[in-house]
Write a structure and sequence with these properties.
Elements lengths: L8 H22 L1 E4 L2 E6 L2 E3 L3 H24 L2 H9 L3 H16 L16 H50 L3 H19 L7 H14 L19 E2 L5 E2 L4 H11 L6 H20 L2 H12 L2 H7 L5 H21 L2 H15 L3 H21 L1 H30 L6 H6 L8 E2 L5 E2 L1 H18 L9 H8 L7 H16 L17 H21 L6 H31 L6 H9 L4 E5 L6 H4 L10 E5 L5 H7 L4 E8 L4 E6 L6
Parallel strand pairs: 8-9, 8-10
Antiparallel strand pairs: 1-2, 2-3, 4-5, 6-7, 10-11
């Protein structure tokens, strides 16, 4: 019987020592740098080339450590485990190998620098292989140490661990307290971390559009001298509006009307977390639903994104509602559920069109296939869903026509041209999209999910791999795997890729990821038995709970504070604070572009009728804007990078 028990103190120490040696190997490999065709060593970004003798000594030492590590794994009993796995049917081993290869691919951190993707050179693959080794050694160390600790604790606290597992499941059955907890966490981050400010220009653009909507307009006419207020994602030729889809600004408008636009995303993220429960209950059942909701509420990826002004949290809300309604419609073929699914997908479409198509496409294909087989029972639900989606799609086309003059020309295309479209070839910002770049973008997003989804010390997708590899299938597995594959396929053809606050292009897949993770966790004992092992179910479940508890503690105590410190650099509220401290009124402030000019212009209203008005510092051309606002006191705000201080300089008097 496979248990986490060791026959002797020597075997127990093998696990412990092998785990510590895994961490040592991860650290040693992390110090290696590949430079100019040779291996060197790096410390905190400072690298040097060792002499040939030192390089040989380092390589020999690393080889000895790896041999010792393999020897310890043999002593821990890993060869019998491998032999047992290899006794499975050849077809299942092929499937297992393919899934495991894909899982390894999702754990490789390929080198990438902003929009520039290195070519597939030997250096590229050497760095990628080094990153994979670091990750493998680290995860192996975590699992070995966890197994050793679990064995020590389980002998004495077996009932306590099983009681903890049951207590967590009871807590997860109370959606409203979990909603309040997630709302409190996301609002705390929105206030403490982001200071109720946008962190990138995309957010500024959408907040700008919401202020236009709140004033009762679709767009405004550009002001005179618009170059002083120009932002990358705001159209300023003929009409003044955000280039992004209108759905998220519409949601933010609700917040503008109550004076709290920063509240919309925390509400959307918190509601989405508890909707995972209803979605899981509709598909997998009560226990999987509870665990899925608990996982969603403990996702730092959801916390940080929901604390921002990005469009993804509101898209997540309607994606979860769509999946819930679609699942109910598939189960009952109710036209009412079909209409609800279509309306939710339509609302998501006017928030994030490409992601909405990726999530909705598998359901649409299922209904098309169902209509062919059983048209009478299916047509009503399918027609209702299509009608609901078409209503929002028509509104989107009317919106495009009002802003760009062409119903099929989106704001992004009007601003940047056809370089923003899907497919391969030259794109915006000097990017040439190729299949190689699409593959690397996909790998980067998958790696981001492993790192950011739960921020565990083990890959976040590991239990999804177990769910995919389990012998016993559930009819709803395809319902959740299909949107993941569909979104991945669509974004393969899109040149953009961004890990700001996490792999945000895959953020709307959180309901699918959490419920598949929940299913994988609950299927772990059956998965191990399916490999040919005799396993005690209670023992295995307690180990998984212990591993998850350690992972959550690690995420909350280390990873979340680490990323909080990094995300805090994206915003700087000092401008607004110093304006208030100085008691400035009726002022025109030119902001140094090196200090992210939009950080100040976020406070401007679209009609530029503010008491304190911010503008871009364009040097000698500032005199033009000063003449347009002759009664405002003028300042230049300069940031000195050396000491990261703001310096206020009264503008020089205009020459007579």
């Amino acid at each position: 019987m496979l248990k986490f028990e060791f026959s002797s103190l020597e075997s127990r120490n093998c696990f412990w020592i092998a785990g510590l040696l895994s961490f040592l190997l991860a650290a040693a490999v992390a110090l290696i740098r590949y430079q100019h065709g040779m291996w060197g060593f790096g410390f905190e970004g400072v690298s040097f080339r060792p002499s040939p003798s030192l390089r040989l000594f380092g390589l020999a030492t690393l080889t000895i450590l790896v041999i010792l590590w393999v020897f310890l794994l043999i002593r821990c009993g890993f060869p019998p485990l491998i032999r047992t796995i290899l006794k499975n049917q050849r077809r299942y081993l092929v499937l297992l190998s393919l899934l495991f290869s894909f899982f390894l691919f999702s754990n490789i951190c390929f080198p990438k620098f902003g929009l520039n993707l290195p070519p597939p050179t030997p250096r590229f693959f050497a760095i990628s292989f080094r990153n994979l080794l670091i990750h493998v050694f680290w995860v192996a160390g975590v699992l070995l140490i966890a197994a050793s600790l679990f064995e020590r604790i389980y002998r004495r606290q077996a009932e306590a661990l099983d009681s903890l597992r049951r207590r967590l499941m009871r807590i997860a059955g109370r959606p409203f307290p979990i909603f309040l907890c997630v709302l409190a966490i996301t609002n705390f981050f929105a206030w403490f971390l982001f200071c109720h400010m946008p962190s990138i220009g995309d957010e500024v653009s959408m907040v700008f559009q919401s202020r236009i909507f709140a004033g009762g307009d679709l767009f405004l006419h550009p002001p005179p001298h618009v170059e002083f207020f120009a932002l990358e994602h705001i159209m300023d030729e003929g009409r003044w509006y955000s280039v992004y889809s209108p759905g998220h600004p519409i949601m933010l408008t609700l917040g503008q009307w109550i004076g709290a636009p920063w509240l919309i995303n925390p509400l959307a993220g918190s509601v989405s977390a508890i909707l995972i429960y209803w979605l899981g209950k509709e598909t997998y059942g009560e226990k999987t639903a509870r665990l899925g909701m608990l996982l969603g509420s403990l996702s730092p990826f959801l916390w940080f994104m929901s604390a921002s002004f990005m469009a993804h949290p509101t898209a997540l809300l309607f994606a979860t509602l769509f999946l819930w309604s679609a699942a109910r419609c598939i189960r009952t073929l109710s036209p009412r559920a079909g209409l609800a699914a279509g309306l939710c997908l339509g609302m998501m479409f006017i928030i994030r069109p490409l992601t909405a198509l990726g999530i909705g496409l598998p359901t649409a294909l299922w209904f098309m296939a169902r209509i062919v087989r059983r048209p009478r029972r299916t047509v009503g639900a399918a027609a209702a869903g299509l009608l609901g989606f078409a209503a929002f799609a028509a509104l989107f086309l009317l919106y495009n026509n009002a802003l760009t003059g062409d119903a099929f020309t989106f704001g992004y295309e009007a601003r940047f041209g056809s370089a923003q479209s899907m497919g391969f070839g030259p794109r915006s910002w000097g990017v040439v999209h190729t299949p190689w770049r699409g593959l690397m973008n996909t790998a980067s997003n998958l790696w981001g999910l492993n790192e950011f989804l739960f921020q565990w010390p083990i890959p976040s997708l590991c239990f999804i791999f177990i769910a995919a590899a389990a012998r016993k299938r559930n009819p709803w597995d395809a319902f959740f795997f299909a949107p993941i594959l569909s979104v991945m396929a669509l974004y393969f053809f899109y040149f953009g890729q961004d890990l700001h606050l996490g792999p945000r292009y895959f953020f709307e897949l959180i309901p699918c990821l959490c419920l598949l993770t929940s299913r994988g966790i609950r299927s772990t004992p059956a998965f191990v038995r399916g490999l040919g092992f005799r396993v005690d179910t209670v023992n295995a479940r307690c180990f998984v709970v212990f591993l998850l508890a350690v992972s959550v503690v690690f995420a909350l105590s280390h990873r979340v504070p680490l990323w909080m410190e990094r995300y805090a650099r994206f915003v700087n509220p000092r401008i607004a604070r110093q304006v208030k401290q100085r008691g400035l009124h009726n002022a025109l402030i030119f902001v140094d572009p090196g200090f992210r000019g939009w950080s100040g212009m976020f406070w401007n209203s679209p009609r530029l009728d503010d008491d304190v008005l911010f503008a871009r510092d364009l040097g000698y051309r500032n005199m033009i804007l000063r003449r347009a606002y002759p009664h405002k006191t003028c300042y230049r705000l300069v940031r000195v990078p050396a000491d990261d201080q703001l310096y206020w300089h009264p503008c020089k008097a205009e020459a007579p």
